[in-house]
User: What shape does this take?
Amino acid sequence: MTKLVCVCTLLMFVFCISSNGQGKTDQSQNNIKSETKNTSYSYGPDAMVRNVKKGRNGTILFAASSSGVFRYDPKQDVGESFTNLTSEIGSHRFWDVLEDRRGNLWFASTDSGVYYYDRKRTVGKSFQHFTTKDGLVSNIVFKIYEDKAGNIWFATAGGASRFDPNQTVGKSFRNFTTKDGIPNNNITTIMEDKTGKLWFGTRGDACFYDGKTFTVFRNKDGKPFYNVGDIIEDRKGNIWFGGSIVKDRKRTSGKGIILTVEAGLWRFDGTTYTKVSERGASAMIEDKKGNIWTTGSINPPNGAVWALSRYSHNTLYNKKPTVTEIMTIKGPGMLCGILEANDGSIWFGALGAESGVFRYDGKTIRDFKRKKGQK
Assistant: This one.
């Protein structure tokens, strides 16, 4: 069993964000530009790529911090393939991106709320900007999620916000905070399972929501799961997440709270929580073959190392599943969001010295950052 000692102010959070309340801007504006003019490149973003998402027609979307939100078109074999979708918005700390079922684009930022682009608008095409002035619970937004009903959820530093795009009159946000039963307002991720239950990872205890009540989920000893960064459901209905169980809390003079935690990758089969690995999992996917892929810290004795790991589908229920390290980097850098493209290749983002986006085709890893002399 691996035990780690960490201060409550988490390194991962501090490394990426210098927050001040709700974010540095609290101004909303309905129309950013009357017409967007995207900029295309033959190379990918070279800033932090926090999340990688699938777009329409096989395209891939990247939330690349201050560089913007990029779209990659794999059908474009020659010339420019990466398009900056936010070049007309300006520089912001973009953290996540979503193309919803209608083909509309949503961009989450950790300094200025949410930007929204409606692709069907034929007159006065523009981005809409949503902030706390429009009802968003916080301008520090980490994740965007679309549920089965088409509602758009935002995981923020101040709680969860739900937006119903089907409302034609009085569009508004419904916010969920500790006042409604969420154990911690600093939400990291949101996922809806096959039963309609919503799972929330937070910087504190994780929970699920059945439409009426928020319930903290706990292991067999009654311990809650702390600092859950990502949650997925596999094809069998099992819930997977990376997180920690707090073994001890000590309050120190002038230094906050020191936690002793047991970190790892966990699986819930509807009855039992099983620790699959001591490796961390800040982001994860299940691929077409049933393999589980994670990015996370493997925390060796000589310091933090982050890895892209693959858990073999035919050993997932073994006492020690077969794990293959595809790529590792040393901290303080991190490996971040993961996506399986239509062709089966694995795309993932990184921050720190390795900032940018990578693709693994099953044999080699390609770095899409700008090369020396490339314009």
